[in-house]
Amino acid sequence: MIAENLLQIKAQLPNHVTLVAVSKTKPQSAVLEAYEAGQKDFGENYVQELVDKEAALPKDIHWHFIGHLQSNKVKYIAPFVFLIHGVDSFKLLKEIDKQAKKNNRIIPCLLQIHIATEETKFGFSENEMMDMLSGSELKTLANIEIHGMMGMASFSNDQLVIQKEFQTILAIFKNIQNRNLFPHFNTLSIGMSGDYKLAIEKGSTMVRIGSSIFGSR
Ligand SMILES: *Cc1c(COP(=O)(O)O)cnc(C)c1O
């Protein structure tokens, strides 16, 4: 079932959109099934679960951290993480840089934008993001690369609300991209099982899909 779901979704994605299969709370066997069907990029939300899966599963998997990352846990994923999606503070970015340096690598990061109306969603406001990006401190971090932005729409059934939120995220993304400050700023991670088609219409280059591939959690 997993392989079928995966291939069905993949067939619908334009070539410029990367599929991150969100495997949080699912067993290693489920990841392996998707991997054997050709999937290389997987997303996880919990540090311990990610560390355990990374140790046990094939080494050529690209592990994306898509959850809320606490600074004191960066060290556990720094040796191998492929892309960190949910960077929501300069403090966290500094810690990622420090741990990347210790591991002699550069860690690609996406800045999380807070656009949804829910209080519980993490991320920078537009102003906070702009301030940080234009600040001089960011340039001192040599072991991180800002590859783009990640966002989530409000938890809503109203397609128009979601569409508007994605549109806002896209406008901010393009605004930053047009400044040409960051050579790698070209990833827009928006879209989940319920809204990925809308997200692709609104410029997504990376979708994070869990339940439509692995079943409900
Ligand atoms: C769980 C999760 C997803 C996947 O959600 P589905 O609705 O199962 O596709 C995507 N992004 C983030 C940040 C998540 O936490």
Brief summary:
The protein is 40% helix and 18% strand. It has helices at residues 2-12, 28-36, 47-56, 74-77, 90-102, 126-134, 159-178, 196-201, 211-214; strands at 18-22, 41-44, 62-65, 83-87, 107-113, 144-151, 187-189, 206-209. Helix 3 links the parallel strand 2 and strand 3 (62-65).
Gross geometry: globular
The percent range for strand residues is 15-25%
Q: Give the helix tally.
A: 9
Distinct small molecules bound, one entry per kind: pyridoxal-5'-phosphate
DSSP, total strands:
8
Oligomer: single chain
What is the strand arrangement across the widest sheet?
Answer: 7-6-5-4-3-2-1-8
Query: Helix proportion of residues, in percent?
Result: 25-40%
Low-confidence stretches: none
**The biggest beta sheet, please?**
8 strands, parallel
Please tell me the overall pLDDT. 95
H and E string: HEHEHEHEHEHEHEHEH
Q: What class would the helix/strand composition place it in?
A: alpha/beta
> What gap, in angstroms, lies between the N and C termini?
15 Å
C-alpha Rg, in Å? Answer: 17 Å
Task: Describe the protein's architecture and organization.
The mean pLDDT is 95. The two termini are 15 Å apart. The protein has helices at 2-12, 28-36, 47-56, 74-77, 90-102, 126-134, 159-178, 196-201, 211-214, and strands at 18-22, 41-44, 62-65, 83-87, 107-113, 144-151, 187-189, 206-209. Strand 6 (144-151), helix 7 and strand 7 form a beta-alpha-beta unit. It has 217 residues and is α/β, with parallel strands linked by helices. Bound molecules: pyridoxal-5'-phosphate. The site of pyridoxal-5'-phosphate (PLP) has 13 residues, from strand 8 and helix 9.
